Amino acid sequence: MDESEGGPPPEPSRFEVQNRQRGLPVDSAGLARFLSRIADDVAPGDPRGATLRIVSDREMRELNRTFRGFDRATDVLAFPADPPEAPGSDPYLGDMAIAADTAARQAGEAGCSLETELRVLSLHGLLHLFGWDHERDRGEMHRLEALLRKRHGLPVRSGGAP
Length: 162
Prior knowledge:
- By secondary structure, the chain is an alpha/beta fold.
- It has helices at about 30-40, 55-70, 100-110, 115-130, 140-150, and strands at about 15-20, 50-55, 75-80, 90-100.
- Strands 1-2-4-3 form a four-stranded mixed beta sheet, with helices on both faces.
- Helix 1 crosses helix 4 (about 115-130), helix 3 (about 100-110) packs across helix 4 and helix 4 (about 115-130) crosses helix 5 (about 140-150).
- It starts with 14 loop residues before the first strand and ends in an 11-residue tail after the last helix.
């Protein structure tokens, strides 16, 4: 119900999802709500938000080449923001990007919907924004990710994440 029907306006989300590609449908509002639930599980009371951009494989390849030195598309990238400088400054975790076509291929390989794969990848990216790093830890991020997948009805895949 919206404000014109007498109900309260929807609460603004601390997560913004931008669909920057045209080939595949994306439930941006549903993905933003999902990210908020994950953030509440990972860091209860932490008000920080993030931006998630769903991009083409071409754009993801450019991002991966520019920021990581790999000249290929990847499924998800996370760009953590610097911590807020002063109390009361705008809290922001950072930015994430997901390659839509890559996500669609992975969804087909995993036998799940694109929506499910976008949630799997956004969860993975959000954990990176919160400081988790599966390349440097001893499996802590993988275990947390598996727990969160189970808790939120996502497939838990063997062999690592995403």
